[in-house]
């Protein structure tokens, strides 16, 4: 039975026996620790202060004011650039081979010089790490391998001195099976928290229905203690919370408030389109040709989900004016209103999945399908057009769940640098908030792992074992993982040419890409033609010209399988962005006129795009 809805109050009692010291946040203890809030003490510097700290490695000099538009205006995040950190792979400071919060603090200068003003940090909460932190054991505790709650506070404060805000990953669809809530829930049929998760008896010793999890295998796990199954859309160590139960929702809202009170600016919201389940939990019709019933086909973005999302917005996100970006597989253009309409939408922006998943199908496990440029452009443009009036997009090419974009969408061999800049140009100047994933700004690449044992990602390893059992060859699966494994994007950040790329003095948790001797931050800081410098120039260009933030977007050369191009118009300004996605030289006489504002080749010939060339033009139209 559900408990009655609790009245939700901002004046929550403080747990008296817990202190702000991390050591007292005992694992498995469901009570919140005291929150010595930073929210009121975090102040962002004025433009002049910030300008001072910007002086190193600056490109251009005339626009610091533009770089420092105030953060407190509504919609400030539209003008922001977000840097995403996968902390495990970012910077290790104590030689255990795992990146940590002190590593992020150490690199704030670097992130600031890039021009980012928000950092999204993937989960650093206490976790048994079945899914590298996306299986949370305690929302109120920092995993010791990442540091302490004091490190977290220091990070928030130090970032603020650079004008940088922190957003955390909010994992609310599921917890770890080691979370105190689940430990209670599984303990007996009549436990108070039984209904906090989704339990069902089996059907003749089989799981309650035929759904398979995102990571493969049944989405149900039998639990001996009570002889029932629980639902897990991800791994069996990630049981799904029961969002139908108001106590669950309020416990989550309370946790979110706790973090916002600590001084974070908002959340990247994990797997949120999975929270609403069809309450009958029936087997889906089994289609022989499709082979399975992935939860992705039955649990994503179900009718009724927006009731939950809007309640969360009203209760927590709106009062705090939190920045929110939701991971939104399953959301289509038809759903924009409920998700990202500037008034009615639950979130500020979403990550859509269309362009990054053009090369796979939900039903065909471990089968790679070549993507097509026209489709890639079309899906991105469709989102641009559909959100033009009343919504906003998160723009991205990479994250911790995807491979390196230069390897996938461009050319990571002969044209690595040029094509990485081209791809950056293409997505960065669309309408929306650009996200840069650590290492993307260097043009980091995929790496061919010759042994399955070198992989760490549970999804990759599980998929490999499952497909080997189905009779597929090792070679074929290693080829697939080279193109799709999440570990491709999780290899350690390449800081310099010293051992382990300057990431760790010990043994890294996942191997370093051997090309670090050439591709690394130190080398790129010494080369003003580097991909890194180009990203800084793009950030600056976007911040200096409101056309890229507020201007209209229109795609041109729509059907081309070679050129990605669009215009941005704003007041009298008419901008064109040109990108050659091929190895051929292409002539394009029309429209390519005006002042050349940035490009990836110094010796650009107007009217021509050489292999992987990109160029940006502006015309100021007379009245
Ligand atoms: C999201 C995360 C991914 C994680 C999954 C389950 O897709 O980005 O890394 O495995 O949710 O939490
Ligand atoms: Ca460490």
Characterise the protein shown here.
With 623 residues, the chain is of the alpha/beta class. 26% of the residues lie in helices and 15% in strands. It has 18 helices and 22 strands. It has helices at residues 47-53, 64-67, 101-106, 108-114, 149-161, 180-185, 246-262, 295-298, 305-320, 336-340, 373-386, 405-409, 416-428, 458-469, 474-484, 521-525, 531-544, 547-550, and strands spanning 82-85, 118-121, 125-126, 138-142, 165-171, 199-200, 211-212, 220-223, 228-231, 266-270, 293-294, 323-327, 349-351, 394-395, 433-437, 552-556, 563-570, 573-580, 586-587, 595-599, 608-609, 614-620. The strands form 6 sheets. It has an 8-stranded parallel beta sheet. Strands 16-17-18-22-20 form a 5-stranded antiparallel beta sheet. α13 (416-428) packs parallel to α17 and α14 (458-469) runs antiparallel to α15 (474-484). The N and C termini lie far apart (68 Å). It binds alpha-D-glucopyranose (GLC) and calcium ion (CA). Alpha-D-glucopyranose (GLC) is lined by residues 131, 134, 171, 234, 270-271, 327, 400-401.
General shape: globular
Number of helices, counting only DSSP H or I runs of 4 residues or more:
18
* Head-to-tail CA distance between termini: 68 Å
Total number of beta strands:
22
Task: Identify every distinct bound molecule in the structure, by name, code or SMILES.
Answer: alpha-D-glucopyranose, calcium ion
> Which band does the percent of strand residues land in?
5-15%
Brief overview, please?
With 623 residues, this protein is α/β, with parallel strands linked by helices.
